[in-house]
Amino acid sequence: MLKPSLIAKTDAKANENQIYTGNGCRITVLTSRLIRVEYSPENKFTDLASYAVWFRKFDGVDFTVKEQGAMLVVETAEVKFFIKKKSGKPAFVEFKESGKTVKANNKNNLKGTCRTLDNTFGKTILMDGLLTESGVYVLDDSVSVLIDENGRFAQREENSRDFYIFAFEKNYREVIKAFYRISSPVPLIPRFALGVWWSRYHAYTQKEYLDLMAKFKSEHIPLTVATVDMDWHWVKEKDINGRFGVKYSGCGTYGWTGYSWNTELFPDYKAFLKQLKADNLHITLNLHPADGVHAYEDMYENMAKAVGTDPKTKEKIEFRCGSDAFWNAYFDVLHKPYEKDGVDFWWIDWQQGKKSDVKNLDPLNALNHYHYLDNAENGDIPLILSRYGGIGSHRYPLGFSGDTAISWKVLDFQPYFTANAANAAYTWWSHDIGGHHMGYRDDDLYIRWLQFGVFSPIMRLHSTAIELLGKEPWKYRSDIYLYAKEWLNFRHSLIPYIFTMDYRNHKEGIALCEPMYYSYPEHHYAYRFKNQYMFGSELLVCPITAKQNKETNFGEVNVWLPEGRWTDIFTGQSYCGDKILSLHRDLNSIPVLAKAGAVIPLAKAKGNDVSNPQELELWIYAGNNTFTLYEDNGKTDYEVHNAKTVFRVSYSEEKAELKFSVGAPQGDTSVIPQSRKLKLMFKDLQAGCVSCADYSVVSENGCAVIEIDDFTPNSSADITLTDARLKKPESLKEQIIYIFSRWQGSTMKKNAAFKHFRNAETHMEIRDALHKTRLPHSVSSAINEALELL
To answer: CA-CA distance, 659 to 699, in Å (whole number)?
Structure first.
C-alpha cells in the first residue's frame, strides 16, 4: 500500500440524481453549463478520478434527456447539449437565452500552454486550452490515466470515451472556475516562493555558494530561494578527449541521476544547508530520477531492503511507477532525510520521455503528483518545481519552462506564453529569467527580462554552466547593475500584493497573470494585444520586449488601454482609455498601470525576510475600490490560521475629496504583527494642497503621505482628504522640449524642426506642428503620447 501522504483525497462518484444512462452513454450533469458524456458499447463506465478530473459529486440540477433522431438532447435551464447516439461524441450546443447554436468542435481555441520551452528561440506551438471564442469547449479525457481509491494510477476500459462539455459562451473566468470545481482549485503557493530565486547550472563548491549568498547580502539584493542544480550529487563529466570518464567517485549511467552529496564539493552539506536557512533562504535541489538508484549511493542498502532487493547483489534499483514499495521508499529513504536536514522542496527535471512501466502513464505526471502530495507531509504549504504534464497539472505548482536561448525573440514570446497559460488553468510558470544559454550578450535585454520577471508569477534567475553567462547583477555594466538591484528589491517588496493574488487564485480561480479578454471578452482589442496582461486585480502590465529606439533611447510598446483612468506606478503619468497608444519608457521603466482606486501593498522588509511585514507601505490611487490583503501562517492549516485586512477607497473629483479606510484585521490575527507601521502614499494627488483633519499629511517625492505608527489587530482607520486634486502632467511645452532633447541627431536639424513647436501651446497647435514637420517616427510617437496624458 502507498503511505497515506501519497493518497489524494478525491470525490469522483457522482450522485444518482446527476446521471442518465442509455444508448451506450452515461451522462452526468455537473452544472447547468457543464456535463460529462461517457460512451462504452459494453456499458463499462468509471467512477474513478482521472489525472484531470477529481470531483463529480455535486448538488443536482434540473435536466431532461430525450432522443431526437440521431441525437441525445440534454437540456438544462440554460443550455441544450446535443450528443451523437452512435458514438457518444458531442455534436453541438444551443444556448437558450441567445438562441445561438455552436458546434462542439473546439474551433477558434484560444490555446493554452505546452510541456516545455526547451531549446526554443522564440514562438512555439501551444496545445489547446479550455477556452474557445465560440463559447463551447470539449475536454476529451478518454486517454488520461485514472487514480484509484488506493492512490495508484489505473487503466481505463478499452473502447470507452470520456468527454466534458463546457458551455459558457464568453464567460471565460466561469469556464476556468468550472474546471477547477471538477479538477480541484489551484493550490496556495508558499509566500517564500514569490520572492527572488537564485539558480544556476554550475558545479559550485560549498564555500563558493555561501560566498555568493554573502555577496548578494552585502549588495543588499534580497533572495528567498537558493537552488542547487544537479552538481550537489556525484556526476559524470567528459574528459578532455571528449570521452565519458569518472570525475568524482561514483557515477550513474549518464551522471544526471544521483542522491548522494558530492563531498568533494560539499564536505559538510548539513552545515551548508544550516547556513542557508540561517540566512532566511529556502532550499531546493535538482533531481533527475530516471536512472533509478545505484549501488554506490549512500542510502542504497536501506533502499534495496525497502523494495525487497538483496543489497549484496549490488543490482540497480529501477525507477518504477507501478510499485507502491518503490514510491514509499523513494520518498522516505531518498528524500525525507534531506528534508529533515533543511531541503524545503525538490526541482524535478524529467526529460526522459513519456513512457513508464505503467501503460499510458507519463512518469513526469506521476512524479509531480506524488512529490507534491509528499511535500505537504511536514505541515508546510507544499511546493515542487517541475515541467508541465497537461490539463490537470495546475494541481502541482510550480512550472519550470525549460532552457531557452538568450534572445529578444524569446523574451518577446514569454509575456504571451505566461498569461495565456491561464487558459489551461496553469497559472504558475517560472522561466529562466534572462535566458538560459546560447544567444548573445545584451545588457539591455537582461534588464528588460528582469522587468518582465518582476511582473511574472515566479522571479527565478537561472543560466547554464558557461562561466560567461552568470546572471549576477554586478556582472553587467554599471547602470544595468544599479537598475537590476532596484528591480529585484521591488519584486521583494511586492510579495504582500502577489501573495494576496496567490490567495485569490486559490479561492476564486482568478490567475495572477490574465489575458485581457478575461476582463473584456467582448472587446476585439483584448484579443489583439497579446503581450499585455492583468497582473492581479489592480495592475495592467505592458512589458517592453524590443531594443531601445536609437533615435530617442526610449523603449516602445503598443498597448490597448481599456476604459477608465490608468496611472503608471513608476512615472506617475495618467491616461484615459478606451484607446490604443504607443508608450515610451527609459531603460529603467516599463508601463505598469494602476487602475483608478488601486491599492498596492508593499513590504518594507530588510534582507531576505518574507514574513508578514512589520512595516507596510500602501500605494493608493484615486478612485472607487475595495482591496483585501491576505496573510497566513505558511502552514497547511492556513484556511484556519489567516488574517484579512480590508482597504476601501472612494473619490469625488468634483468635491476634491478622497476617503480611505483601513478595517480592523479579521480572522486569526496572531499570524500578523501585533504592532504595524502603515505608510499611506496617495500617489496621484497633488501633495501640496492635500489636507486631513485627523492625520498629519506630509509631502514625499511629490506624494501626499500619512503615517500610522502603531496599527494593531484591534485598530481601524477612517481618513478623509480634502483639496485632494489629481496631479497634472508637466506642461506640454516642457515635455516636447524633453523629447526633442533626447533625439539623437543633428542640433541644426532638430532646431529647425523645433521652431514649429516653439510657440505651440494647445493640443491643436501641437498637432498642427506635427503635420508641418517630418520628424522621425519615434519622436512624433512620443509627442503623441504626451498629448494623451490626463
So the answer is: 18
What is the reported pTM?
Answer: 0.96
Residue 780 in grid coordinates: 512624433
- Sequence-distant (≥ 6) Cβ neighbours of residue 586 within 8 angstroms: 553, 554, 555
Per-residue pLDDT tens digits for 538-594: 999 999 999 999 999 999 999 999 999 999 999 999 999 999 999 999 999 999 999
Q: DSSP string covering 326-377, please?
A: HHHHIIIIIIHHHHHHT--EEEE---S-S--SSTT--HHHHHHHHHHHHHTT
Are the C-beta atoms of residues 420 and 457 closer than 8 Å to each other? no
Residue 434 phi, psi (nearest 5) = 95, -5
pLDDT of residue 246: 43
CA-closest candidate to residue 753, choices 730, 787, 776, 784: 776
Q: Which residues contact 784 (CB under 8 A, 6 or more apart)?
A: 581, 582, 770
What phi, psi does 374 have (nearest 5°)?
Answer: -70, -30
> Is the sign of the CA dihedral 208, 211, 215, 220 positive or negative?
positive
620 vs 726: CA distance, rounded Å? 12
Cell numbers representing residue 60 in the block: 443536482
Phi, psi of 58 (to 5 degrees): -120, 165
* Residues pairing with 361 in the sheet: none
Q: What is the largest CA-CA distance in the chain?
A: 93
Whole-angstrom CA distances from 771 to 494, 604, 741, 784 are 43, 49, 20, 12
Asked if residues 135 and 78 have their Cβ atoms less than 8 Å apart, the reply is no
Length of the chain: 790
758-787 residue pLDDT tens: 988 889 999 998 998 999 999 999 999 999
Quote the CA–CA distance of 572 and 234 in Å, as a whole number: 53
In DSSP terms, which residues pair with 632 in a beta bridge? 642
Selection from 684, 692, 688 nearest residue 659 by Cα: 692
Within 8 A by CB and 6+ apart from 762, the residues are none
Q: How far apart are CA 620 and CA 649, in angstroms?
A: 8
Q: Please give the Cα distance from 517 to 526 (Å, whole number).
A: 5
pLDDT digit string, tens, across residues 733-758: 999 999 999 999 999 999 999 999 89
3-state secondary structure of 618: strand
Query: Does residue 167 contact residue 100 with C-beta atoms inside 8 Å?
Result: no
Nearest to 384 by CA among 193, 196, 200: 193
DSSP code at position 14: P
295: CB partners within 8 A, 6+ apart? 311, 314, 315, 316
- Determine contact, residues 399/414, Cβ cutoff 8 Å: no
What residue spans of 455-580 are helical by DSSP H?
478-493, 495-508, 525-528
Whole-angstrom distance, CA of residue 589 vs CA of residue 543: 9
**DSSP helix, strand, coil percent of the chain (3-state; round to 5):** 25, 25, 45
Output DSSP code: residue 144. Answer: S
As a whole number of angstroms, the distance between CA 73 and CA 96 comes to 13
